[in-house]
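ping. complex inputs:
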Amino acid sequence: MRIALDAMGSDTCPVPDVAGAVIAAREYGDTIILVGDETRVRAELGKHDTAGLSIEVVHAPDAVTMEDKPSTVGKLKPESSMHVGMNLVRDGGADAFVTAGNTGAALSIATLFTLRRIRGVKRPALSTVITLNGRSIICADVGANADCKPDWMLQFAIMARAYARFAFSIDNPRVALLSNGEEEGKGTDLIRESARLLEAADLNFIGNVEPKDLFKGGVDVVVADGFVGNILIKTMEASTSTLIQVIRGELTADLPSKLGALLARPAFRRVRKAIDPFETGGAPLLGVDGVVIIGHGRSNANAIKNAIRQARTAVQGNLIAAIREGVSSTAEPASEQA
Amino acid sequence: MRIALDAMGSDTCPVPDVAGAVIAAREYGDTIILVGDETRVRAELGKHDTAGLSIEVVHAPDAVTMEDKPSTVGKLKPESSMHVGMNLVRDGGADAFVTAGNTGAALSIATLFTLRRIRGVKRPALSTVITLNGRSIICADVGANADCKPDWMLQFAIMARAYARFAFSIDNPRVALLSNGEEEGKGTDLIRESARLLEAADLNFIGNVEPKDLFKGGVDVVVADGFVGNILIKTMEASTSTLIQVIRGELTADLPSKLGALLARPAFRRVRKAIDPFETGGAPLLGVDGVVIIGHGRSNANAIKNAIRQARTAVQGNLIAAIREGVSSTAEPASEQA
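pong. complex structure:
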């Protein structure tokens, strides 16, 4: 398999990006194509032992930054590493593209400039894997689309289900809609109309769930509009990291606590790992015509390696074909004239 | 001060409700009026030492349960403890009403049957106090209104600001709008239009904030539509309680961890207290014409006592007059004919 990696993606690029590529090339035996400023990438690569590994470098003279505006960067930087990497996928030079860069820019470049949408997809969605308490859930959309329509929500469900099938190795993922309660009158108009569509579709739709239901098991895919999905994942991240900060503060406040923390260090390490978003690495942009995995900007080498693993899984699971097939079932019926 | 308490409010009523009333009567010296099934309430009260305390009982033959539908309970149970308690406030027999019961029912009974809206208020809002990392923020709406309009959001800001002024003893609370980022193109249509209104209003509006900004300090009031606000607080609650569960699991997994946890027990107790929603006790229903404090259904006696403290603060701070004055500034200008 050939996986293109944005060497200019992460906040501290190209250091973790190149390091992650080296680990992935060794661990998976795939060809990793580093896309970015060739001089910088080769210099960074020179710091690693790459004997026997299949690593290529493709030059891209420009790079997208976190400051670039998603709406204009596609036009302003046509030779960015994102453009070049996604074009590799489009033209068959790579099976997937992985980036830890600007998510909005990746979405816009993929959708409007290089890969474009899979036929029938109304709006591509950002997905993410939520992991807490040892259970993983795929959530979409987590930020691509703010004001959504019910038929987009249906497609988010179908696309995320396609991903969940092979990411979790389950035949019939349980799909839920994020809402503020089961009770009568709860939810927005969008939620009520989306629930009707999901109910009528060929999906294992288990109904509306509240945030607390996500951590109890029983849900594989949770659908939200991009605004609410984004608030969900950012609130989870902020709450858990703030709580850990509070705990750390208290555990260093006096000697017995410090000693206790020392004894319990392996336990805390396991906790950290259990909730570490970097263990997942990234998640696909659903609905664009090629596998694109978006990782966290703060990715370290391990996170990059894991994002590459997500890309392999998506290619092996034939994500694009599965989405194409799924969304074709939501297409408006052809004209009655036959 | 005379505070009416729904004795039939909490999930395990009337036990914590009555116990909380006794503590509050002793601690604050106020008159607490227990509203509920007189026989049950007096029996429960008999288990406490109430010598010298000013506690009254007002009979209400019916009680709202968590299963009652907010849309119909007002009509179906006109003699519930919520009706009777709110009518006491309306008719001057009490200065405030506190309940740990069904929030939707309280909202509907207050708005449609007893206290009604303060003149000029478009939609009452549920508020809550978010506390994590030692910082408190008032959030509104957290569940009363799902599909909101920008002018309602402006009023939520004004009403929550009125509450924040005396709850936090600050003159000019910093008001923010919950969104998914500062970047261009972020937010929904509702957020963009609400931001324009908040910007133009006589408010200390500091702009849009993401969930992570809420825990950094710098924000006193955060405004959201009731759907998003509800997702926010429920995600916070679910994330932190799940994380604590994960930590507890790991801390009992082996002997050194168990020992460490034992040594650090006082530290963990401080953490629990810092994030305990019961320390706040409750928050007002903003916009109804009388002080109504809603507590958590799972309230213990301490939470009930703290909810009563919130009621005192709201009465002392003259919440209703402050909201009346605030919303009058948002009223459409009188006809040009003068």
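Chain B touches chain A through 67 residues (CB under 8 Å).
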